[in-house]
Every structure is written in C-alpha cells, then in structure tokens.
Design a protein that fits this description.
By secondary structure, this protein is an alpha/beta fold. The protein contains 7 helices and 10 strands. It has a domain of 69 residues. It is globular, with a radius of gyration of 20 Å. The structure holds adenosine-5'-triphosphate.
Length: 252
Amino acid sequence: MSIQVEKVSRTFKGQLAVNDISFEVKQGEIVGLLGTSGCGKSTLLRAISGLDTGYDGTVRVNGKEKRGTSSELGVIFQEPRLMPWLTVIDNVCFGLTGSKRENYAKAREILNVVGLSDFEKHYPKQLSGGMAQRTAIARALVTEPSTLLLDEPFSALDAFTKLQLQDMVLDLWDNYQPTMVIVTHDIDEALALCDRVVILKGQPGELYKNIELNQPKPRDKADTELAKVKSQILESLEIGRKPIRPKVVREA
Ligand SMILES: Nc1ncnc2c1ncn2[C@@H]1O[C@H](COP(=O)(O)OP(=O)(O)OP(=O)(O)O)[C@@H](O)[C@H]1O
C-alpha cells in the first residue's frame, strides 16, 4: 500500500499545528517522521490513520483519497492499550469476527512471530512493558493490515528492550513487507529501521528534509555512511550546535 500526503495542514482552535505538508510513502517502505517536540508528528500520523479527520489537504491510499479509518491501516501507540480482563491471546483476537478456532489460529501465528507463544494465557498485569507492547503489535497485525502506523512505539521501554523490539520490527518486515510510518524522537531508531526519514521542523511544523537511507538492513551501527546521515539529521534538528548555556566572559 502506498500513501500520499498532499498539502496537509491542521489547525487547533485557530492555531496552526502543521502547515502544508506533502510527502509519499511507497509500498513496503519504512518511513520515519522525525522532529523536535511539538512540531506535529503525531498530528500528522493521526491524519494519515484517519483517527483525525479535521485536517485540510488530502491523504491518499494507493492514489485514492481517504478520510477516516481503514482496516488496512494498523495503528500502534506508545502505550499498549490492552484490555486488563483479557488474556494475551484474547487481546490479540479482540475485534476479529471469525470463529474462535480461526481467530486463535491466526493469533497464534502472530504471537509466534512476536515471540509470545508461551504467554498466550497470561493477563496484561503479568507482562513486562516490552511483552505488553509485543501484544499490542500482534493485535495490530492480526487483521493483516498492509500498513502499520507507529507513534513512538518503543519510547516508554528500556534501552535493551527497545533494541529487541526494533529487531522484531525488521523480522516482521521480512515476514510481511508492510508499509510503515514510524513517529520517533530516537535518531538511532530511525537509522536502524527506516528507508527514508522525513524531518519536520518549527511550530507550526513544516517539512524540512527528506533523507534517503540506502544501507542494507540489519545495519552496522559503526557504518561511516550511517554516521554521516546521523550528523546530517542532528544538524537539521540543530542539535549539538549551540552551547546549552551562554558562555560567561569574565573581566580580568
Ligand atoms: N487535540 C489537540 N488540541 C489542541 N492542540 C493540539 C491537539 N493535538 C495537538 N495539538 C498541538 O499541535 C502541536 C503539535 O502536536 P503533536 O503532538 O502533533 O507534536 P509532536 O511533534 O508529536 O510532539 P511530541 O514529539 O512532543 O509528541 C502542539 O502545539 C500541540 O499542542
């Protein structure tokens, strides 16, 4: 599934939050939305997902205008949003319309991919943060969406779990080749996962740069080309360029 974002703007109570943003996500591509806090990344993702319809401009899916949610788009949030009274497998099946037998078969296949086969009978309170987020990812995948939209999916997790789940995303991609849009603050995460990074800047947020990443995955973190892209991104975001405090010049 390809996505075309055309001249999308969003105003909240007379205040422009994102301004005239256009970009395309090709079929099977993993695109990262990066930018400093408040530049409108989540607002843009909500417009793409159809959870928000109050924007100006157009979102197209495979070239056709879309406004509103679609079962072809799976959304994953920062927090897993599981139902505490349901087991892992019942959380994954929630919303499926088939027979219990069919649903469980589908859910078990996905739970295997996300590494939770041994935990299907656990309840959310018995899971670690990483396992809960894996369950949320399995729930999004079970309807076989061709596109996944992820809003800072790993930012609440510890560094080690985050790396494990980033590897899992690459495995998922190998299995299903979904189109993905990932909102992240984490430049290393974007460098590990994305084929392209869209950088937003300012308030209201505007599209600043589109950076292609052609290195094969899984990527070598020590790769010099990747290091160059990282400094290009840091420079775009104006991180590390200014001293945090102005230098005090003392008189002799
Ligand atoms: N429902 C809303 N009502 C009013 N203002 C909103 C709403 N949603 C977002 N905004 C405003 O729009 C701007 C962009 O917010 P958004 O959450 O999209 O930014 P972001 O880049 O995702 O930020 P962060 O990285 O901190 O999550 C902010 O100024 C925010 O206050």
